[in-house]
Specification:
Blueprint (H helix, E strand, L loop, with lengths): L10 E5 L4 H12 L3 E6 L2 H12 L5 E5 L5 H15 L4 E4 L14 H29 L2 E6 L12 H21 L4 E8 L9 H4 L4 H5 L4 H13 L4 E4 L2 H11 L1 H11 L8
Parallel strand pairs: 1-2, 1-4, 2-3, 4-5, 5-6, 6-7
Helix pairs in contact: 1-2, 1-8, 3-4, 4-5, 9-10
The structure holds NADP nicotinamide-adenine-dinucleotide phosphate.
Amino acid sequence: MPRLVRYQGRVALVTGGSSGIGEAIARGLAARGAAVALLSRGSTRLQAAADRIAGVGGVVSTHPCDVGDAAGLASAIDAATARHGRLDIVVCSAGIGAHGLFPDTSIEAMDAILRTNVQGLVHTLHFALPHLLARGEGWVVNVSSVAGRLGQPDEAIYSASKFAVTGLSEALTVELAPRGIHVLALYPGLVRTALFTDAELARLPERVRRSALHPDDVARATLRGLELGRHEVTIPRVAVGGYLIRTLAPGVFRRILASIRLPALPSR
Ligand SMILES: NC(=O)c1ccc[n+]([C@@H]2O[C@H](COP(=O)([O-])OP(=O)(O)OC[C@H]3O[C@@H](n4cnc5c(N)ncnc54)[C@H](OP(=O)(O)O)[C@@H]3O)[C@@H](O)[C@H]2O)c1
C-alpha cells in the first residue's frame, strides 16, 4: 500500500478546512511541509483559518465555495490546482450535522445534509481525482463517522449520509488502488467542533459529551493512518468494539444503543 512518507513538496486540498477536523488535518499537513488549499463557504472564517495555519509554516491558499454547488466547486478546485501547480492529497471534511428525530426533521434540513455530506463529497472527488490520476499517485481522506458504521437514532439522516461515504470509500479503495490512489476512510466518534449546537449536544447523555475528542487527536490519528498505509481509521478505538457487537449480536447492540440515546428517544 502506498504509505504517505513525504509531505514536503506535496499539495493538499481540504474541504471544510476552515474549522474543526478539516482545519486540524490541514494544520497537521502544513506543519509537516505540505502546501494546503482550503475550501469552505464563509470567506472570513476561511481566511482566519488560513492565518492560523500559516502560523505553523507552509503555503496556504483559500478558495471559498459551497460543495453543494457543482460549478462553483469545479472552479475552486481548478483554481487551487492552478495556484499550487499540482494536487496530491484530497481531504473531504466539509459536512453538516443535525440531531433530531426523523419525523421532526424538515425536508429542507434533510436535503441540505444529503447535498453537503454526500453530493458535495462525491462532486469533490469527481473534480479532484483527475489531477491525482494524471500523476498516478495520490491520497484521499473521506471523513465519514462512527455514525457511518453504526446507525444512530436521533441523527438518522446524518447517519444515512455517512453510510453513503463509507460505502463509496470502501468501493473506491479497491477501484483506485491499481491507479496509485490510496483511499482512507475516517470514522471519528464525537469531536468538540462547531458541527453540533449546544442544544443538539444536550440531547446526548453527559458521559457521552464528556468523552468528546479534540480535533487535533483526530488529525494526528488520520496522518498516522496515512503514514502507515491504512484504509480505515476509527477514533476512539473503543468504537471498533461497537462494530463487532453490531455484527455478532445485533439485538444486544440495539439495546445498548437505545439505552445510550434514551434522553432523546420518544417514550412509548
Ligand atoms: N464533530 C463530530 O463529532 C464529528 C464526528 C464524526 C464525523 N464528523 C465529520 O467531520 C467533518 C467535519 O466536521 P467538524 O466536526 O469539523 O465540523 P465543523 O467545525 O462545523 O466544520 C465543518 C466544515 O465544513 C464546512 N462546510 C459546511 N458546509 C459546507 C458546504 N456546503 N460547502 C463547503 N464547506 C462547507 C464549514 O465551513 P462553512 O460553514 O464556512 O462552509 C467548516 O469548515 C464533517 O464531515 C462531519 O460530519 C464530525
